[in-house]
């Protein structure tokens, strides 16, 4: 491999720093003598992410996995269901031995139960870098070595919308990523009605890399032109100060009622664009019959919505009138659909925009998830990027990714998904690389019971996450900082020659090298590696993009020139407004990929599924999870500002945002007062699923009735008085594990009901970052 050469290169070029890229930004890094990293944001980035600060002390942190390790119980008793997972000690073993064991176990399970008993869905964000992408590597390996694996579809990000939007409008990518741009907003938009806000902490992130954070500046430009931003959200902080946003805070999960009432106003006051509904939509009559109450006897008036949302009728009416007055953009954040009946606000937001008649117009209409990530509001580069082929998966079974615990707990059980009835496969072995299910999944006590059922759990990561601590076999991977790679994303106009900034920590190996070691043992290295080392692959993958640049008549430096330059700029793509602009201009020549070719405000297809939890048009549906006397508060567990998910939670930026080493839970002064909670005190958050501790922040930027605890504190459970409590502040200790609906089966992690109280019980130190290794 190329390890030695790259490490010495890093030392030679020490002073200048070397180019690298992460999901939260492009930077130059330089290894310091004390093992820390000097990290400098790219000079062209107007608003670099503070999350870069997590890299400085990450390379040699004690939470890194130093050597391969096997859980003691698995070593002694062999594979099989075991509820000691998560509590057991680990024994370090040499690489040769652990690779023999993993290869042997994969062969045993394949021969006894077939590849359909291996789960390789391995959801997760891993790191930037097109070659060392952990999921691609894992999938390619399982396809080659086993002939396939049970995969997962969709995402925790957009579980409901990914499967809903194609029925209504077109692909989720087209509707979110190639639609209204920030430049259009800066120039054209009068009113931005942002359900779920547009926090710049969120657009800090783009999978694969982001070289310029433009959102704050664009919002400032729009606001100074007089554009009006409306932050519909439980948190005032869901917009940056530069946007000068108004704040409207409906009860969490009730946006659909507010949107329906706005439609009622547009219809009743004849402000709806009936020509657009006629020429570009189907089903407006069915939806309007529901809005007027002709269908169910309840008119969806602002007064009706006021009782559900807590927003007074005059405010709702005023917003609807104002929206009809100028160029209005409706956005719905991912968060709204990461909740019970999450399909509804996505559809209702689209219907509201359809009634305003501006879909496809510059800076207007509907852009699902604009502002939720840094991929949105830009124009896709439209070039083939370096991509590792995953090969062919011979197993047809799959699950929607958020149904992982259901699958493991109930093999063979049937479930509904997007019009199909399916059965959960019987999984014996789970292999995870590049994700952290004990970060991303809901109801972690239940997830622990689910993982106790498998015969073998293998986790490959660079740090001792809670998922690694539940694994039977733990394989130490390198961080991207320790590898050569190519950084690229479909919405960024830079390709980065990512350089290794350090030699690997202890005995960590690249995911690719780990899989090669297994492939050699299983007799499929020639097929898996195609005879290439890392350097060979990088050159091979880069060539796709270089050839496309050359074919397009653009500057197309060869690989060596690219690496010497550190990065190349791609041609600026033209802002053509995407498929919605073309559709607006001529709906006959450019129909949408829906059954009618138009926007479906009523969908015969969805209606035909017969799902009460996702009917044929957007609707206000009663929920199972609602506040009660025992659990009266809404917990909003959103994305953390100080890190990406759980990644580098031990890093400097993430640690600086904690109090007493705990994650911070914010609540309204009134709710704090009622519970005798003062700022900075520890509190316990509990639900029927479990409990966690957190440090209180009393904050009037949080709506009354709401507690905000971001995700990502490493799960650190202990038993106190027979109750499992995460002492660190992971909200998934209390969230609810249920699908959005039978249509999307997405995660509902964003919202659940809880009670909070001051915690006067024992206060232990956090142990989440101490490796559970005994020798
Ligand atoms: N309650 C609640 N839960 C949520 C959400 C919510 O809103 N509320 N949001 C959800 C959303 S949108 C998402 S996307 C998920 C995110 O869930 P995940 O994507 O699973 O979270 P990450 O922390 O990014 O996990 C990535 C893991 O990959 C590891 N890793 C990084 N690089 C490499 C590598 O090169 N090789 C290997 N082998 N490992 C590597 C990291 O150390 C980390 O452990 O969480 C979801 N969970
Ligand atoms: N810094 C940082 N940025 C990230 C990530 C990260 O981990 N860290 N993760 C990235 C990923 S993978 C994804 S998918 C996106 C997720 O993008 P989103 O899902 O949009 O992000 P969240 O921060 O979870 O939620 C945004 C806001 O929605 C509001 N909200 C919650 N419930 C409701 C509701 O019922 N109604 C209304 N109107 N508002 C509500 C909350 O106040 C929350 O702050 O973020 C990306 N950006
Ligand atoms: Mo996500």
From TrEMBL:
Keywords, alphabetical: Metal-binding, Molybdenum, Oxidoreductase
Keyword Oxidoreductase part of the UniProt annotation: yes
NADP recorded as keyword: no
Pfam families linked to this entry: Molybdopterin, Molybdopterin_N, Molydop_binding
Domain Molybdopterin dinucleotide-binding: 633-747
Required cofactor names: Mo-bis(molybdopterin guanine dinucleotide)
GO cellular component: outer membrane-bounded periplasmic space
Boundaries of every Molybdopterin oxidoreductase N-terminal domain copy: 20-60
MF annotations from Gene Ontology: electron transfer activity; molybdenum ion binding; molybdopterin cofactor binding; oxidoreductase activity
One BP term from GO: anaerobic respiration
Stretches the record annotates as Disordered: 1-26
Ranges of residues in domain Molybdopterin oxidoreductase: 64-521
PANTHER family membership: TRIMETHYLAMINE-N-OXIDE REDUCTASE, TRIMETHYLAMINE-N-OXIDE REDUCTASE 2
Family membership: Belongs to the prokaryotic molybdopterin-containing oxidoreductase family.
Protein name: Biotin/methionine sulfoxide reductase
Native species: Palleronia aestuarii
């Amino acid at each position: 491999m190329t390890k030695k050469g790259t490490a010495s290169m890093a030392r030679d070029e020490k002073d200048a720093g070397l180019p690298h890229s992460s999901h939260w930004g492009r930077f130059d890094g330089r290894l310091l003598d004390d093992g820390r990293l000097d990290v400098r944001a790219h000079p062209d980035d107007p608003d670099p992410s503070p999350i870069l600060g997590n890299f400085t002390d990450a390379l040699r942190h004690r939470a890194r996995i130093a050597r391969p390790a096997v859980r003691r119980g698995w070593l002694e008793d062999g594979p099989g269901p075991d509820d000691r997972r998560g509590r057991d000690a680990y024994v370090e073993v040499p690489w040769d031995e652990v690779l023999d064991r993993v290869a042997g176990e994969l062969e045993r399970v394949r021969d006894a139960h077939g590849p359909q008993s291996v789960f390789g869905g391995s959801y997760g964000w891993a790191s930037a870098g097109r070659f060392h992408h952990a999921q691609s590597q894992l999938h390619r390996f399982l396809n080659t070595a086993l002939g396939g694996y049970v995969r997962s579809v969709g995402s925790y990000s957009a579980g409901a919308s990914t499967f809903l939007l194609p029925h209504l409008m077109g692909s989720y990518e087209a509707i979110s990523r190639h639609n209204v741009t920030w430049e259009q907003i800066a120039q054209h938009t009068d009113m931005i009605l942002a359900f779920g806000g547009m926090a710049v902490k969120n657009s800090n992130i783009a999978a694969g890399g982001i070289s310029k954070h433009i959102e704050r500046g664009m919002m400032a430009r729009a606001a100074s032109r007089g554009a009006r931003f409306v932050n519909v959200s439980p948190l005032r902080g869901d917009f940056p100060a530069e946007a000068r946003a108004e704040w409207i805070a409906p009860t969490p999960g009730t946006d659909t009622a507010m949107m329906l009432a706005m439609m009622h106003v547009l219809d009743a006051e004849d402000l709806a664009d009936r020509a657009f509904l006629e020429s570009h939509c189907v089903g407006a009559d069915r939806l309007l019959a529901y809005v007027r109450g002709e269908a169910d006897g309840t008119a969806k008036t602002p007064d009706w919505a006021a009782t559900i949302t807590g927003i007074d009728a005059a405010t709702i009416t005023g917003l609807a009138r104002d929206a009809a007055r100028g160029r209005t953009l409706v956005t719905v954040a991912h968060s709204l659909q990461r909740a019970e009946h999450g399909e509804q606000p996505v559809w209702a937001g689209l219907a509201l925009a359809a009634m305003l008649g501006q879909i496809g117009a510059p800076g207007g209409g509907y852009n699902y998830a604009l502002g939720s990530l840094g991929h949105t509001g830009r124009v896709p580069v439209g070039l083939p990027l370096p991509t590792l082929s995953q090969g062919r998966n011979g197993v047809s079974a799959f699950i929607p990714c958020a149904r992982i615990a259901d699958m493991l707990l109930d093999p063979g059980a049937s479930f509904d998904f997007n019009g199909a009835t399916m059965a959960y496969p019987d999984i014996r072995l789970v292999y995870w690389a590049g994700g952290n299910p004990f970060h991303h999944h809901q109801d972690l006590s239940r997830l622990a019971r689910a993982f106790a059922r498998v015969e073998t759990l293998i986790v490959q990561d660079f740090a001792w996450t809670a998922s690694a601590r539940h694994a039977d076999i733990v394989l130490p991977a390198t961080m991207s900082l320790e590898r050569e790679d190519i950084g690229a994303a479909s919405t960024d106009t830079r390709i980065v020659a990512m350089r290794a900034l350090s030699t690997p920590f202890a005995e960590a190996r690249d995911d690719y090298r780990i899989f090669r070691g297994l492939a050699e043992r299983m007799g499929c290295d020639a097929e898996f590696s195609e005879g290439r080392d890392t350097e060979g692959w990088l050159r091979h993958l880069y060539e796709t993009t270089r050839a496309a640049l050359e074919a397009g008549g653009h500057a197309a430096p060869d690989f060596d020139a690219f690496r010497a330059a550190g990065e190349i700029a791609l041609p600026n793509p033209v802002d053509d407004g995407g498929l919605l602009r073309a559709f607006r201009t001529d709906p006959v020549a450019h129909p949408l990929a829906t059954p009618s070719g138009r926007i479906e405000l009523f969908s015969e297809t969805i209606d035909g599924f017969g799902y009460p939890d996702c009917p044929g048009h957007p609707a206000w549906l009663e929920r199972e999870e609602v506040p009660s006397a025992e659990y009266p508060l809404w917990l909003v567990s959103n994305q953390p500002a100080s890190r990406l998910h759980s990644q580098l939670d031990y890093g400097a930026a993430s640690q600086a945002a904690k109090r007493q080493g705990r994650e911070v839970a914010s609540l309204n002064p009134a709710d704090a007062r009622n519970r005798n909670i003062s700022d900075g005190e520890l509190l316990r958050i509990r639900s029927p699923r479990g409990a966690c501790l957190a440090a209180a922040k009393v904050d009037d930027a949080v709506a009354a009735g709401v507690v905000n605890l971001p995700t990502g504190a490493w799960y650190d459970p202990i038993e106190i008085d027979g109750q499992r409590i995460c002492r660190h502040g992971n909200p998934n200790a209390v969230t609810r594990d249920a699908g959005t609906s039978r249509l999307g089966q997405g995660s509902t992690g964003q919202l659940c009901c809880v009670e909070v109280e001051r915690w006067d019980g024992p206060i232990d130190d956090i142990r989440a970052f101490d490796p559970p290794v005994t020798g």
